[in-house]
Amino acid sequence: MASRGLNFRFALGLLTAFSAHPISASETQRCAVDDTGKKLCIAAPAQRVITLSPGATELVFAAGAGDKVMAVVNYSDYPPAALTLPSVGSHTRVDMEALIALNPDLVVTWVTGNPPAQVELLQELGVSTFAIEPRTFAGVSSVIERLATLAGTELEGFAEAERFRVGIAALTQQYAGVEPIPVFYQVWEKPLMTVNNEHLIGKVLKLCGGVNVFGDMQRLIPRISAEVVLQADPDAILTGSVEGVSDEQLDEWKKYAGLTAVEKNNLFFVPASPISRPTPRLLDAIQTVCGKLANARENLESARENL
């Protein structure tokens, strides 16, 4: 263990020493502004990339730079190729020794997902970090383009960004004018959590004609009580479901027979990963959510006809 610690300190010393020498600008230099407003310039297209969140992993692959990813963090499960890559820990607890040993020329972080002290340490050691976290549909395309710029994969990355833009525009047009329906999206069961309108899931609900009953809350992912859900009495309740895991997250609501969503059989599950990550798979998530809300409207209409 002692020799391993010495090797780590030696590697850190080398990295710090080399990073002290400024890199001269050249025609191969790549620059982009991250989602914190920081401009990053690297001497040449990144070849050794490490991603510190599952969403970052997915977006780097979407940018056409998947073959440049050397390591990821736990739960980086998409695309399937990411499952074959080594892990440097979790998004909240990175194995710095393992990360430094891989000698990355770009580490992609998540603005609210990685502890600031962890990111600051990487920066102090001279590691190039690029923080991302798209909060809008346009932001998803923008991040893909910026990552492609840093990786030198503009041809593939910009094409994917445009595909996403076109897809969002088509879905927005397709579901424009649908009947608004009050919706509660349950992020977590215990403690009970939801999203506001600024969260990307909130924007998905809006695109599909859903009126987020907790959309005006200040926190992006606020904690709430069952009592306020009962008071809001949404017409539909949705939550994310992980494949292969028992869908019991909404069972608690079934005991409230007077709740409109329960009475009208409007409790729905959607795949958790696509809707919770701001990546191109949002296109699939939107189709699913819009389909569930269409089912909810049909159930409400049938109930009205049977009165």
Description:
The chain is 41% helix and 14% strand. It is of the alpha/beta class and 307 residues long. It has two domains: 18-166, Rossmann fold (3-Layer(aba) Sandwich); 177-305, Rossmann fold (3-Layer(aba) Sandwich), CATH 3.40.50. A four-stranded parallel β-sheet has the order 4-3-5-6, with helices on both faces.
C-alpha Rg (nearest Å): 22 Å
Q: How are the strands of the biggest sheet laid out side by side?
A: 4-3-5-6
The CATH topology of the largest domain comes to Rossmann fold
Helix share bin: 40-55%
Structural class, please? alpha/beta
Label the overall shape: elongated
Report the average pLDDT across residues. 91
The total domain count is 2
Strand count, sense and barrel status of the largest sheet are: 4 strands, parallel
Q: CATH H-level name of the largest domain... which superfamily?
A: Nitrogenase molybdenum iron protein domain
What's the number of extended β-strand segments?
10
Work out the oligomeric state of the chains in this entry.
single chain
State which percent range the strand residues make up: 5-15%
Instruction: Please give the alpha-carbon distance between the first and last residues.
Output: 75 Å
Examine the secondary-structure arrangement and name the CATH architecture of the largest domain.
Answer: 3-Layer(aba) Sandwich
Which regions contain 5 or more consecutive residues with pLDDT less than 50? 1-6, 16-24
Order of helices and strands: HEEEHEHEHEHHEHEHEHEHH
The CATH first-level class of the largest domain comes to Alpha Beta
